[in-house]
């Protein structure tokens, strides 16, 4: 810094947990690709392999990218709040776009093969999670990214946004676990109980999903690892409160 002050640092242990989360995330993506490539024939859009785009997109979008979007406020602790908000919203938006591709893939694959839609517990939980996630994204952009909401309204909605953000992340992982189990029972029901390599690999993917969720959840719930407000952010908040509610900062 120009005044000779030491550069800001992250709390002890935070960087290590974030690094572990990224290692787990990349490993679960690689494991998903290995499962689909080695045992399910790979991924192709206009072919019988179109369905395989579904698990790949859901793990990438609804788990890995969603988890990283939640970690943005822990990792970028000293950057401008506006930039951090924009990155948070961008990652969530990218996760939604990729997940939508996965949903289109499964519906088109079902239609081609004459398979009924939306009858399983996995499909119910998965679709509900996606719709609520989309709603959460729109509300978050409306309240926090774009101007308009009053200071008190933002203050009221923020705890709801945080709660539902973590809840939807948990539901996303749970839906993936249901999907893995459903796919295994459809594809290898006769041999699954004999500890065949595909079953072991898919079970490993499930364990990695849970581990990724636990590490991300731990980082998010450590009170001392929350992003501290910068001095200029506190001043802007007071100005915003004055402008939107017509009262002085000390009122």
Automatic annotation (TrEMBL):
Membrane topology, as annotated, equals: Multi-pass membrane protein
Membrane-crossing residues? 12-36, 56-76, 88-107, 127-149, 161-180, 200-220
Q: Where is the Cytochrome b561 domain?
A: 20-221
Keyword entries, A-Z: Cytoplasmic vesicle, Electron transport, Heme, Iron, Membrane, Metal-binding, Translocase, Transmembrane, Transmembrane helix, Transport
Q: PROSITE patterns this protein is in?
A: CYTOCHROME_B561
| Keyword check for Iron | yes
InterPro entries associated with the record: CYB561/CYBRD1-like (IPR043205), Cyt_b561/ferric_Rdtase_TM (IPR006593)
The reactions it catalyses are: monodehydro-L-ascorbate radical(out) + L-ascorbate(in) = monodehydro-L-ascorbate radical(in) + L-ascorbate(out)
Localization in the cell? Cytoplasmic vesicle, Secretory vesicle, Chromaffin granule membrane
Q: Which cofactor does it need?
A: heme b
Picking any one GO molecular function of the record gives: metal ion binding
Q: What's the short name of a Pfam family annotated to this entry?
A: Cytochrom_B561
Q: Which domain of life is it from?
A: Eukaryota
CC annotations in GO? chromaffin granule membrane; lysosomal membrane
Question: Per the record's keyword annotation, is Electron transport included, yes or no?
Answer: yes
- What exactly does this protein do? Transmembrane reductase that uses ascorbate as an electron donor in the cytoplasm and transfers electrons across membranes to reduce monodehydro-L-ascorbate radical in the lumen of secretory vesicles. It is therefore involved the regeneration and homeostasis within secretory vesicles of ascorbate which in turn provides reducing equivalents needed to support the activity of intravesicular enzymes.
Q: What is this protein called?
A: Transmembrane ascorbate-dependent reductase CYB561
Organism of origin? Vidua macroura (Pin-tailed whydah)
Print the organism lineage: Eukaryota, Metazoa, Chordata, Craniata, Vertebrata
Q: Which gene encodes it?
A: Cyb561
